[in-house]
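Key result, reporting period 2: structure in, sequence out.
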């Protein structure tokens, strides 16, 4: 057990080194949320409609959610699909490295990247726009990050099993969440939706994550329902990944 954990930790370090050495990969994963925060956040002046709360206080948690999704879902799902298509996963099964240690290291690296993105997003939100989480909202913020990263990592492994080629990995992973991100208000917190669509979007993990993180910045009731939605999707993603995950194409 201790040996497996030690091997997983070493694999996580190797994954992080590989991640940061690939400038394009790191740029799209790490810099994109921060660029969106600065570009769109700079135009998000004024207060949220019918409130005295600044609009940026709603926008920053939306970008926090976006960064978590990019790191834990899009990148993980696309990377595992490419590794499977290229035969890397199949070759790993023939090495002395336990498959659980390899997956554990990959997931640990994903968590580290998502946490780093969240920390930098929160820091820039504070330095550039004065958006600071509420002291009373730190519990919701921490719970949202833990549940969100776990949920979207599970969904990333699940979607990887549905991707049939390396070429389609990135487009499929992106297309499966980006439209939902738009209608969930991640980039426009003032977006209005018909009631039926609002209810539908509220049952999806993208909106649930945004709502939980938003409670860290603005005054709301503790987002129990949104956390339950995230945990339900995490369980569904984990179950589907365990059922369909393959080490070979």
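The corresponding designed sequence is given below.
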């Amino acid at each position: 057990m201790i040996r497996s954990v030690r091997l997983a930790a070493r694999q996580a370090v190797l994954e992080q080194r590989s991640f940061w050495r690939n400038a394009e990969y790191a740029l799209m994963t790490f810099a994109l949320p921060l660029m969106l925060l600065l570009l769109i956040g700079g135009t998000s002046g004024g207060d949220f409609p019918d409130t005295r709360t600044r609009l940026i206080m709603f926008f920053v948690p939306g970008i926090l959610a976006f960064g978590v999704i990019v790191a834990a879902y899009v990148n993980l799902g696309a990377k595992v699909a490419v590794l499977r298509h290229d035969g890397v996963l199949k070759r790993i099964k023939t090495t002395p490295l336990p498959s659980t240690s390899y997956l554990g290291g990959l997931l640990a690296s994903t968590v580290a990247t998502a946490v780093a993105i969240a920390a930098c997003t929160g820091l820039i939100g504070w330095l550039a726009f004065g958006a600071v989480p509420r002291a009373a909202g730190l519990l919701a913020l921490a719970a949202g990050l833990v549940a969100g990263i776990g949920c979207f990592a599970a969904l990333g492994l699940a979607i990887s099993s549905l991707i049939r080629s390396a070429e389609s990995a990135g487009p499929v992973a992106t297309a499966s969440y980006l439209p939902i991100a738009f209608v969930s208000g991640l980039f426009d917190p003032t977006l209005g939706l018909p009631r039926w669509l609002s209810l539908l979007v509220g049952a999806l993990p993208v909106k649930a994550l945004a709502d939980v993180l938003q409670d860290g910045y603005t005054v709301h009731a503790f987002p129990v329902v949104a956390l339950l939605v995230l945990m339900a999707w995490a369980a569904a993603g984990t179950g589907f990944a365990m059922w369909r995950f393959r080490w070979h194409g």
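Residues 2-244 form one domain. The longest helix spans residues 99-129. This case is discussed further under Risks and Mitigation.
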